[in-house]
What does this fold into?
Amino acid sequence: MIEPTLNYVHCPDASGGHRMAYWEWGNPQSAHVVVCVHGLSRQGRDFDVLARALCDKAGNDLRVVCPDVVGRGQSDWLKDPAGYQVPNYAADMLALLAQLQPTTLDWVGTSMGGLIGLVVCGQADLPLPVPVRRLVLNDVGPSIQWDALQRIGEYLGRAVQFDSVQQAADALWAISTSFGPHTPAQWLAFSRPMVKAVAGVPGRWTLHYDPAIAVPFRAMTPEMAAQSEALLWQLYDNIKATTLLLRGAQSDLLSLETAQAMTVRGPKARLVEFAGVGHAPTFIVDGQVQTVTSFLLD
It folds into this structure.
């Protein structure tokens, strides 16, 4: 079973810059790069199963890059929590792409990673090495249900500790049942990168991310969300990439109405729904993985 390598890119900011980590799969010399960007409280190892499947299908002619967005995973934490916002994350992705220098570029974005993708793909004047060819938006669109944001805000940023990785996995499952059915082994593997050892406290574990990522998230108001929605629709309408929209059929974040609107405007995304899943599909189940690999590589 192939494993990724861990690399870093320096990203500028007002406090002197920070390092963003990224996990790299496949052939590091391949000019075809698939960038996979995770959700709000997640990290790049979410895409392990998908990355392996993509590399297996492409042989030795693909590079899959899965960043830990700043404040998560192996990336630095920001000195100023106000920097934990989508436009800044998109700027970090430009630094990453400048380092990778692909000649064929695809993007897979789950939830927040999809919003970052809208910013990257929806502005023609950005200094991309090459335009995004194919875009996968995983259970996210320009209109986000306010109730879902409130639900996420209930657990985001809590400073919690666990006695074991299994205990952490159980706690994560309690707030993630909308991800759909997983075997205990699948869920444990999916959860392992979500925790790290507590420094100086043997046998204790905590979540991988900076709790301060919740600061700008909790400052969001319905009025601010409405303003962001108008801008996101403008970005979506500008997208030229061939677009696949995935939706958990029980999603509380991406409404069916929004998903259907995305099929008739902008890039006119092809919509695929997964039964028995809410927010968001995890790309662990075979059908979900096959849908993405076929779209990107066939």
